[in-house]
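User: Modeling request: complex.
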Amino acid sequence: MNEKHILGIDVGGTGIKGAIVDVETGQLQTERIKILTPKPATPEAVITVIRQLMAQLDYSGPVGCGFPAIVQNGIVKTAANIDDSWIGVNIEESLGRVTGFPVRAINDADAAGIAEMRFGAGRGKNGSVLLITIGTGLGSALFVDQKIVPNSELGHIYLKGMVAEKYASNIVRKNEELSWEEWGKRLNEYLVHLERIICPDLFLLGGGVSKKFEKFSEYLNTVAPVLPAESQNEAGVIGAAVFVNDNLQKEQRASI
Ligand code: BGC
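Assistant: Request completed. Predicted assembly structure:
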């Protein structure tokens, strides 16, 4: 097995995706498999799906896991779009135990951000770059001169008296049957608000809906430019694989 080909998993509120990624080029080495997120998405149920993905991809080795919550030193700290029983679980240990291989976990938006900064629309961009992933929730990944400020959770700021992701996520667009114009204007209010707080030099938009960027880009009027992510739905998987590889290498260097 090529040790630069690593499994990246992206646990989402709707689907759990996985693919083997070449961590040097960011290219997928296999198709991306998606299994619906079990309901309730308890640790046991999600871990069972991840094992299923590994078996389908015939993979054994280190695993990078993007997770839709604050993840600090492997421990899940919040649960907005995942079962509450995750809070306090060390995902690296529990998944590592069942797979027998090292696992490193990271917030899903941070994973997508890492992929975009290394291989996508954020390549070579310095200053502050804010990636917003738009899906079931709103995730954020903040970079300063290419270095991440982890767990920024800017989908949870308040806008119009509610948590922003309940106002402008893609699920809200679908559930409320908003037109591209209606939803695009909501997204714009959110980005303009973020601009007042963080003032990034560049916004990147990720998640599946970024493929439809041309349908809503005309409603966005932030001062900073807004670009769609290049790897769109695959960024989470790519970034998770890169994250585990970077971390294992760093840990190895530190132990010498
Ligand atoms: C979570 C974030 C996550 C985002 C996208 C939010 O509800 O709090 O951690 O990045 O959803 O999945």
